[in-house]
Structure prediction request, 728 residues.
Amino acid sequence: MIKGFFKLNSTNSANLNDDYNQKNNFSIIYLLLIFILISCTNTSNKILTSPDNKIELGFEIIDGEAFYSINKDDKSVIKKSKLGILLENKLNIGKNLEIIKVSTSSKNSSWSPDFGEFDEIIDNYKNLDVSLSNGEINFNIVFRVYNDGVAFKYHVPNQSGITNYNVIDEYSEFNLNSDDTAWWIPGFSYRRYEFLYAESAIDKISKKFFSENIEDISYDTLGIDAAHTPLTIKKTNGLHVSIHEAKLINYSSMTLAPRGDGKLEVELYPWSDGITKVKLEKEIISPWRYIQIADNSSELLMSNLILNLNDDPNENKDFSWVKPGKYMGVWWEMIGTNESTWWESKYHGAKTEKVKNYLDFASKHNFDGLLVEGWNKGWYPDWCCRGDGIPFSFTETFDDFDIDFLSNYGLERNISLIGHHETGGQIQSYENQMEDAFKMYNKYGIKNIKTGYVNDVSKNIKIYDENGEISKEWHHGQYMVNHFQKVIDVAAKYKLMIKTHEPIKDTGLRRTFPNFISREGAKGQEFNGFSSNGVNHATDLPFTRLLSGPMDYTPGVFQLNNFRYTEPGSGIIDKDAIIPSTIAKELALYVVYYSPMQMAADLPRHYKKHPEAFEFIKAVPVDWSDKVVLNSEISQYVTIARKDKNSENWFVGGITDEKDRTFELDLSFLDVGHNYKFKIFKDKTNTHWKENPMEYEIDQFDLKIKNDSSTEIYIAPGGGFAMQIEKI
Ligand code: NOJ
Ligand code: CA
Prediction:
């Protein structure tokens, strides 16, 4: 058994480009000397520090097994945790390990996304590449230490003697403490990522806890107990952590399974055989597993680690045609107000005359797109939700939807139709039609497509082979990861932007493939239409789902009660249906939840009742140059200020859970000595998410900013506020 150990601290990291070759360059005496040094200086786990020296990564081999650990400012983030992968043919690359070589490098640069939350993103890290061998197979574990976290990945290069690179298991651990608090949704469960968040001790992550406290999923017995990522953790030592993966390409997605004593272990979604996790041919490059580390909840929201762990687009690919925008839709009247149908009927939503009226309204108010759902053949009352209905057509329109006329009508008014492809999870049918469908959209000047994958069974993506035999895949296994990527790649060929519902989670690939412009991937507003998210879900999202990237939440519903009919044509209002929000909060969400495609989800007739608040939706940008988190506490409240990409103006949004609050907002993010015009949409003292959700007031004033300028704002229970700040 060999015990290897490399101590590379920040003082000697300038020389870290040297390669160490244990076999050739290190004499036994030198190794012994290092061990003596380490024990004397008691720096046993300190291997690589972050550029600001606050985060320390330790890596060591003990009895042939690889371990890492992470500290920040001498507080433990991740205790000693195992690494390793099991390949097919029982090739265990976690045992009998010997370090062959260690090389290090560093990077300190910045880059500018074409659109996003920041003008410039700093990319500053130290890199440690450890080459290992167990005598049968050579591989590398690569670490990166940033100021805001640590990432690692496995690389098994192509090598002689190995014929099979299939992954059977991954052993990566994240060893936290039992009483650290986690905010999580269950993996391997019927509704993909569309769940409310549970808050519990790490060891409690289970379908049992979820069923007892959040929603009954106990009958969903197929999968294991594990949480999806990003998984948010507040440690008892005060550190805030988010564990997630970056650059998920041609791999299966990762969940985190509790192993007791605060330990989490990676569990990958398997293929339908239940055994193979990842099928690969020549080499293994795992996605990055990363741990975002912050001193407080606001810092957690400022990280760009996920984007830094991805690459710029291929330089031969032009994505300059990808543009952020705002859209309305023939949508809420099906999913929210329940007055129309997706399928042809007396109450069909996508009728030419009605869509034309929407185009008039949306173009008059300068929206870029109009989503139309239920335009294509294949919709019928029982279309939902087991992936085995009549397949949708993506090229044939219903007879009462005149796509020729409507697309032209829109383009003449500077607005394009947004296409909709609900696949029902019938992947082969979609892939067979995809290219024709994209060509057709090109013909009609359509630039955006909303895709959808409603199939509410855990493991039910049906794949038919040549003999008609069916295998059933998980929604987030390698097959689907590759499908989502295929859609993005083919769409890019046709210059189409994709916004996916029921997607694969965001792992930062939007940097490389900007046409994957947004996605759902959590419980969005739609659930408030046909059921309810409760009043406390909106403040969970910024600290959980939104850490991974933009969300198509679809905010901006103004008619918050008495909005839903019992059924199309009934004329009877469902008095129990309410949206647990306030109008001021609905406005705030445009700033708090980042998405380069934002929807104004409500109906024109509801917007007409509140013209001033609607002006905010029209004015709020979808592309930003800067962001400041003014206050926050996970799942309780958050206030975010963002600077418009194209002006010196700022917008601020703040939201609270069911508690009312009074915020004293520090305005020092504005330029001191300059004058600004403020317009604030806020709850009134008698506003309440349940009792009185639609009352708001507008405050307007000019202010010359001093060092200590601040403003006080009251937020009602379940409410929020939105601010427009114009530099004058
Ligand atoms: C679920 C999506 O999230 C929703 O937005 C869409 O309207 C329905 N599926 C139908 O495709
Ligand atoms: Ca959905």
Notes: The chain has a mean pLDDT of 93.
